[in-house]
Write a structure and sequence with these properties.
The chain has 514 residues and is an alpha+beta fold. It has helices at 2-22, 49-62, 75-80, 82-87, 93-112, 145-156, 171-174, 223-235, 246-257, 385-390, 396-403, 413-443, 452-488, and strands at 26-34, 66-71, 116-124, 127-130, 133-137, 142-144, 160-166, 201-205, 215-216, 221-222, 243-245, 270-272, 279-282, 289-293, 300-305, 310-315, 322-325, 333-337, 342-346, 351-354, 360-361, 494-500, 506-512. Helices cover 37% and strands 22% of the residues. Strands 2-1-3-7-8-12 form a six-stranded mixed β-sheet, with helices on both faces. A five-stranded antiparallel β-sheet has the order 16-15-18-19-21. Strands 4-5-6 form a three-stranded antiparallel β-sheet. Helix 8 packs across helix 9.
């Protein structure tokens, strides 16, 4: 009997050791960038990219990562996130390279001590694409996918790398296309430029193709970033193993957005784990502050602090318990049940706080009427392990076939044609005005008693000049319209032709797809 117990104990211990070998202790490093102001002056500035960056900073610092922050906090963000504001540096290329050098030394030290290193690059801000090539905006500078690889990821040499982007056009940062911008079949990562060509880099993006990423005033953050942070606080850990996989976080975000009626406002997550790990992040193993909501109290909840900062949202399914981290730096937290509109006051403390131990009260504030109606459907559906099991990563071919819009091929000659057309329009108008004035002067040149022959010859001359004037005005109009089309609709093929009748009428014919 004792021999059997000993063997069973050895098998159990060997299993635990194998699990430890599969997921060894890790040192985490995070570089977080938030940029409100766009590179394109025609784009509206973002309001909450700096808030997102500050909240990512708080989260990753709490999860134990060595964290660097590049952003320019506005006045409101500075009041709400004092520590992040104190440590934030300008989101410039010079500062970025300086921080990378610091991270390079720290990661090298960790690796020399036989500690596995994990690096997170997180960006919230504006994304752009040009000829199918994606890039992000820094302070008046571009950050392309090749620069990310060559100047950030490769110098650090971390054992694992995860890139998280909440920006429009983020798809092109991963899957850029060749010159010409024509849609083509994707046959694997080795045939694709951009970050996705590197299978050891994990990718988590807010949108595919050129779909917009949205901010929402109710959470004072980007919708995708808020959902992602909510999951990383533990709400996405569907199997309660202390690790959040790419499948879990992608399923969590997709489930949160599922009920939004208008697809335009529905953030679309693109997720791809690195080839050497299925996990995005692990929960702290020490004695942390936790909130546990049992499966009998299934509902959509959100947690905010006393300053009104909305930290996380989640919706547990019936019979599915949910356990989330509570930020230790917050002295007072409030848990809201959006369905019965009750509020629970929480005083964070080490260990697990069960919702059954909290006393509900009426909410202190009412919902803001300016909140976007579409986003009121966020987290409308519950989340559990079954949702994760049913989630399948989107393939590259599906992305290209369904959501990708081929970028427009450049036509540099259109700008020249536009200016030439503008010049022709100006010359034609000038000539028409001169002829019109000359016709009036010619009519006034007759003497007091002109002969019938003189009047007839003069009328014929004036008629010819009027015809020429009409033609010149018609040509000026055609040239002006052609110039406008060249400047404002360069992506379409435009054909223009001018026709006139002997009676002096002119017509402009425009052909093409608009």
């Amino acid at each position: 009997m004792l021999r059997t117990l000993a063997i069973a104990l050895m098998v159990l211990l060997s299993g635990l050791c194998a699990a430890d070998e599969q997921i060894p202790p890790r040192a985490m490093f995070a570089l977080i960038i938030g940029v409100n102001h766009p590179l394109d002056p025609e784009l509206a500035p973002l309001r909450y990219a700096d808030d997102d960056a500050a909240r990512y900073f708080d989260l990753f610092r709490y999860l134990g990562a060595r964290t660097y922050l590049l952003t320019q906090p506005d006045e409101n963000t500075s009041r709400l996130h004092a520590q992040a504001t104190a440590e934030a540096r300008a989101p410039s290329r010079t500062v970025l390279l300086d921080v990378v050098q610091q991270l390079e030394r720290e990661i090298a030290t960790a690796r020399s001590r036989k500690v596995e290193t994990v690096f997170y690059l997180i960006y919230a801000g504006h994304g752009y694409q040009e000829n199918g090539q994606g890039y992000l905006g820094l302070a008046k500078e571009r950050l392309t996918s090749q620069q990310i690889i060559q100047e950030v990821i490769e110098p650090l040499g971390a054992d694992q790398t995860h890139v998280v982007v909440d920006a429009c056009n983020s798809y092109y940062l991963a899957h850029s296309r060749g010159p010409g911008g024509q849609r083509r079949a994707l046959r694997g990562f080795s045939h694709v430029q951009g970050l996705a060509a590197h299978p050891k880099i994990g990718l988590l993006f807010s949108s595919t193709s050129s779909r917009d990423s949205h901010e929402w005033e109710a959470v004072q953050a980007g919708v995708f970033s808020h959902e992602l942070r909510s999951g990383l606080y533990g709400a996405a850990d569907a199997d309660h193993n202390g690790w959040i996989s790419y499948q879990e976080i992608a399923a969590f975000v997709e489930r949160a957005n599922h009920s939004i009626p208008n697809e335009r406002f529905r953030p679309k997550v693109y997720s791809r784990p690195p080839s050497n790990s299925e996990f995005l992040i692990g929960m702290p193993s020490g004695e942390q502050n936790h909130l546990e909501i049992d499966g009998t109290r299934a509902a959509h909840y959100y947690i905010e602090d006393s300053q009104g900062v909305r930290i996380m949202d989640f919706h547990n399914a019936r019979d599915h318990a949910m356990r989330v981290l509570l930020p230790a730096s917050r002295q007072q937290l409030y848990l809201h049940n959006t369905q019965d509109r009750r509020e629970y006051q929480i005083h964070p403390r080490p260990g697990t706080i069960k919702i059954s131990s909290l006393t509900p009260t009426n909410p202190r504030t009412q919902d803001r009427g300016a909140a976007h109606h579409a986003f009121m459907f966020l987290f409308d559906l519950p989340f559990d392990r079954q949702v994760v099991d049913q989630y399948h990563f989107t393939s590259l071919s599906d992305l290209t076939e369904v959501t990708d819009t081929a970028p427009v091929a450049e036509r540099p000659w259109l700008g020249t044609a536009g200016w030439v057309s503008t010049g022709l329009a100006g010359a034609a108008i000038t000539a028409a005005v001169v002829l019109s004035i000359d016709s009036q002067n010619l009519a006034e040149s007759l003497g007091p008693n002109p002969t019938h022959q003189e009047v007839s010859a003069l009328n014929q001359d004036i008629a010819q000049r009027n015809l020429a004037t009409s033609l010149l005005f018609g040509m000026a109009g055609a040239a002006a319209v052609s110039a406008a089309l060249c400047f404002w609709w360069p992506e379409d093929s435009i054909q223009t032709s001018l026709a006139w009748s002997p009676a002096g009428g002119a017509s402009l014919v425009i052909g093409g797809n608009f």
